[in-house]
Amino acid sequence: MKKKALVIDDDIATLDLMRFQLESENFEVETAANGSKGLGFVEENKFDIILTDLNMPGMNGIEMVEKCKEISPDTEIIMITGDGSATKAMEATKAGAFYYVEKPVDLEELMVLIEKAIERKDQKAEIKQLRGQLSNTASYEGIIGSSKAMQQIYQMIENVAESDANILVLGESGTGKEIIANALHYKSHRAKKPFVKVNCSALPKELIESQLFGHLKGSFTGANSNKDGLIAQANGGSLMLDEIGEMPPDLQPKLLRVLQEKSYYPVGSEKPVSVDFRLISATNRNPFEAIQDGSLREDLYYRINTIEIHIPPLRERLEDVPMLAEHFLQIYADKYNRRMKGFSESAYNQLLNYQWRGNVRELQHVIERSVLLATNDKIENLTINSQQVVNQFQQNTENIAGIIPANDAFRNIIGEMNFDSEEEFFEKIGKIIVDKIPEDRNDDETDGKNDVFNLLEKGVVLAALEKTDGNKQAAANLLGLYRPRLYGMIKRHNIKN
After folding, report:
1. How far is it, in rounded angstroms, from Cα 99 to Cα 404?
2. Is the Cα torsion angle 98, 101, 105, 107 positive or negative in sign?
3. Of 247, 243, 246, 233, nearest to 196 (Cα)?
4. Cβ burial 215-246 (10 Å sphere, 16+ → b, else e)
5. pLDDT tier for residue 85 given thresholds of 50, 70 and 90
6. Hey, which end of the chain has fewer CB within 10 Å, N or C?
7. Are residues 76 and 120 in contact, defined by beta-carbon separation less than 8 angstroms?
């Protein structure tokens, strides 16, 4: 949809110029030759941007800004005037103007300001919408999230929970696979029976068989009595095998036999034991890669995967982040007896712009840490620890413009660095860069083409664009830039697609 702009100025030539410029940028434009007519337009329409002159007969620009903000508080306003007074500029911004521009107007600069103003308007609207969603938090059996992806998962759980179909839950570490498994069990007819959870990667490989199937007295050294295994404990209920791809390959055929025959042999026994349980498996690996490298048997995969539930990473459902953040804020405010009123706009921006590589678990830890370190009753900034900054920097920057080699040695240097703040981290990065530059390097002959800051800027922009698959808005968010500034960098470095 076209963005809508209103231009208010008593100079007809200025109105015509602004209309031509804005329409060429695909805006729908209204013009008014005085403040009274302009206010009439504001009452009848919703504008994305208003440009108004300061000195007009009848109503000056300051009054115009104040009245426009009363009628349409979300619309951003840019003041345009020939009066270069700093006092007037302060009055305009205090009244609610986004910015103050002097005549003669540089149209290219003006368009950048307009784009920034509309970005801020849209961002405020997005935050307002997300905050509004929090009043109707979508939760399901302990799962938090209202995104389309989570709604589909809720529906799938509803459809399959009552069945005894084997379920495979896929998702990166920290996405909440165990919570999905909880919902499947407690929504089923087995809810009053045991729910036994086994982390296959945490059990010692030499003991995992006896832990699962149990053993008879004397079946191996240390077996001083008969012992039921975890499968026996799950009889009548559900068994969750987390990280099933870590189960020893020689044990997988025995599990397959249990699923096929509904019976098993304890270690040291020749007598089968009947068992009835519902299997829920989970893994953070791609199952086909696990099959290919031999860590997961193909026949077992098809047996455990009657129904597959895939949990998307948090970075692919950012609309759930504020809801989860509010949920964790309440938990940790209660736990640590803190009175917290929520998040500042700055903190909300951080929530939406951070990559959350550790998924829900990382968000949970960041909120807990932020509550503990908060100095007032509102989270003003998220407290992201230094290792997370390191991880994000490593993910964003593989090779800085050829100055530093992207090899294991460099990554080891970054990983071993200790620092107390993000500023200190980048200071140390700067020292590494300068130390790597040859002392006999001379740019006089190349007219500054090898300017280190130039090369560094280009390298970081390229890395951000690569990380976001060329999405300029996402790259700008990642780097903490306004999109027009990123466009300027792309143009200056002649970066193509």
Report:
1. 40
2. negative
3. 233
4. bbeebeeeeeeebebbbbbbbebbbbbbbbbb
5. low
6. C
7. yes
DSSP at 225: S
Q: How far apart are CA 321 and CA 359, in angstroms?
A: 10
Between residues 348 and 336, the one the model is more confident about: 336
Token digits for 222? 């240390």
- Name the one residue in this structure whose structure tokens are 């005549």: 103
User: In sequence order, which ranges of 305-402 are alpha helices (DSSP H)?
Assistant: 321-335, 345-353, 359-373, 386-396
Alpha helices in 262-297 (DSSP H): 287-292
Q: By three-state DSSP, how is residue 349 classified? A: helix
Dihedral Cα 21, 22, 23, 27, nearest 10 deg: 170
Instruction: Give backbone dihedrals phi and psi of 490, rounded to 5 degrees, phi first.
Output: -60, -45
Q: Residue 152 and residue 345: Cα distance in Å, rounded? A: 30
d(CA 401, CA 489): 14
Cα–Cα distance between 370 and 97 in angstroms, integer? Answer: 33
Average pLDDT, rounded, for the chain: 82
Length of the chain: 497
Closest to 81 measured CA to CA, from 31, 13, 9, 20:
9
Q: Give phi and psi for 317, each to the nearest 5.
A: -140, 60
Cβ atoms of residues 81 and 10 within 8 Å: no
Question: pLDDT at residue 383 above 90?
Answer: no
